[in-house]
Design a protein that fits this description.
By secondary structure, the chain is α+β, with helices and mostly antiparallel strands. Among the domains are: about 30 residues; about 90 residues, Alpha-Beta Plaits (2-Layer Sandwich). The protein contains five helices and five strands, in the order ααβαββαββα. The C terminus is likely disordered.
Length: about 200
């Protein structure tokens, strides 16, 4: 079935009216902000806000409470990582940015542990599925830290050691059982969300 296409006028085919409208909007915003910033310098029109640029990293905007932040790995009381290399976080990850290499733990009471645990932050969409999938509270996203800027793609890969450095000791029973599930060590420093 043929689709009838509307006939465009010459002006519409040249996109000239749309380009001029865009330039007009940009010029209007520029002129408004220029006038307001100039008036603010002289102490006038303080009640009218003008657009400002956050001078990152010297100035930082506060994130909402729902912001997850960078990943961290929680630790056992002995300081080792809680992760059991079960691969549930990597399986649940829609971006497939988590790479885990499992190894045999030196302690015969522990089956395995992650020899290598990496997250490619350039691929990560910070959805939190890895946190929800983890049965032993080994990974969290409550740091409130923004992903660090990098110049080389290889520097964007978070290693197990860097995520453990942001981690704290978790008092949850290994495997997620027990009344203290998802709680933290009360002696640990508070996190961004006000908890410990």
């Amino acid at each position: 079935m043929p689709v009838e296409r509307p006939q465009l006028t010459l002006a519409e085919r040249l996109y000239l009216p749309q380009v001029l409208q865009g330039i007009a909007v940009t010029t209007r915003h520029f002129a408004r902000n220029l006038v307001l910033h100039t008036l603010h310098l002289f102490g006038l029109a303080r009640d009218r806000a003008a657009a400002v640029t956050t001078q990152y990293p010297e100035q930082r905007k506060t994130y909402s409470d729902g912001y997850r932040g960078a990943h961290r790995l929680t630790l056992k009381p002995d300081g080792s990582v809680r992760c059991t290399a079960c691969f549930l976080c990597a399986t649940a990850c829609p971006a497939k940015c988590i790479n885990i290499e499992a190894g045999e733990h030196p302690d015969p009471g522990v089956e395995k542990y992650p020899v290598r645990y990496e997250i490619d932050t350039l691929q990560c969409i910070y959805c939190g599925m890895c946190v929800e999938a983890c049965p032993c509270d080994a990974i969290r996203m409550d740091t409130g830290e923004h992903a660090k800027p990098v110049e080389d793609r290889a520097d964007a890969i978070e290693s197990k050691e860097s995520m453990m450095a942001r981690g704290i000791r978790s008092i949850a029973t290994q495997g997620g059982a027990g009344p203290s599930w998802r709680e933290q060590d009360p002696t640990a420093p508070p996190t961004r969300n006000g908890g410990h």
